[in-house]
Prior knowledge:
72% of the residues lie in helices and 0% in strands. By secondary structure, the chain is mainly α. The longest helix is centred in the last third of the chain and has 43 residues. This is Protein POLLEN DEFECTIVE IN GUIDANCE 1.
Amino acid sequence: MEEVLTINLSVHTDMEMNFRSDEGVRFRKVRANIGIDEESSELEESDVADRFREEAQEESLDISSYPWEEHGDGECLDVPSFWDYIWGELTRGYSLDNDELRYTEKQKKISAFLRIPIELEKFLFYGTLQCLEAFCHLSTFLPIRLLTSVVGSLLYSRKWTASNTCDFLKAFIVTVCSCLMTLIDTSVMYHQVRGQGVIKLYIFYNMLEVADKLFSSFGQDIFDALFWSSTHSSSSYVRMFVHLFIAVIYTWLHTILVLLQATTLNVAFNSHTQALLAIMMSNNFVELKGSVFKKFAKANLFQMSCSDVRERFHIFTLLAVVVVRNMMAVNWKFEHFVEMLPDLALVTIAEVIVDWLKHAFITKFNEIPAEVYQDFTITIAFDVVRSRGEKAFSDYSDQVSRRMGFIPIPLTILLIRVITQTFDFTVTSVQLFFCLTWLLLLSVKIVNGIVVLEKACEHVKHYRELQEKADCEIFRKRVLMMKSKSAPNSPRISLIDFSDVLHQPASNKGFTVSDLMSHWDELNRSLETTPIPEPRRTKSLALFK
């Protein structure tokens, strides 16, 4: 082991010749992990040697015959007398400074644990704004886009494009399913649900939640297949109509499912004992048991975070439907709304606290830094920029559906059904109120879209700046060494990504923004003491156009 500790550049050639020796194999692994090739400079070879010494020292520290030999506590083997034992228990002391490293690490973990709710809420808030953007787009800009496309096509001033076809299919599905929803009597559905027992309703609501997630994960695939078959020239009309029929049936069933969720939640709010509401709220805490004790990688945590964004927006929409239905039943008395506020606050607070605890313990048990939510925010920010580029391959709302599992079409149809049943549109005042509400929703869509795009540009710009910083040779190698001894060589910062919601993501290679930010101060201190050499080769940045 002494030979290992005194390794230098002169023995590098001997280790290369001794190909089958353990030291030679380990030395080549260290070179590969740091990213040094055969044609390396002296500075890079010294980095390899330093890293090899560090690993050898770590192994030598781990091979001690007895745990107390590290601290020189051999005298503890003497068995004290009875009175010496009593006196020792009364007078013995200890100092936390004897294990400073352990306590410093614990302090960092507590600080990270307390930071998780703040970082999580930043990501969830930005993701909720994206869901709101996709939801408002369907009822505001989609009709305007469709109207301008039809008029432009009739006047031969605009060419009919694939995006116009997709917009037309969305409007057609919303119209057909809204007509089909008129066949369902919501009053009969409400009384059927209310007549069931509390436990049966609790089980039924859990089944609806699971079915809703499965429908959401499968629904966007149906729409993608429909859009492709309707815009691709090689697809037959028979296939397009089959996909259209499947999409209409799926949307109708999913809307009925969401309506059942809203009805069950409405029954819980109107129950006299409110036992059902308490049981449904406790179901959120049961979710902790199934999540916090599982192994999570960053990509898996990203999937769960996106699912939480969708779930939070979904529950807020259902609560809005419940409020509208209850206010209509009491002729819009404000006193009844005040009575509902405590229950609404309890449901919201329970949802938020469960998300905080779930993410805090998952990151703690899996040793994931709090900065990982910056990675997630940057990834969904790239989604916003991509959807508005010249080479965009899908509408922004479809991109949100793939990322978050949030499909706005069933919720839009549900709101249309609730609004048409709540208000009498033959009255002039109701028509005027509806027009003002639509203009307000359009204003919210415009302002929210500008804010989302502005924040996306800021996050992408910040990502590029970090990438330029990480392009420094020493900086990149030290991040990789701090991250893991077996981290692969990567000349750029990686983005955490996955293909579709609820799909198993691929393992992430290289280092990410969270790896960079979690060691930011330490890396900057090391750069101040170590000169930065000129890079031997150019590395291309992932510039996004």
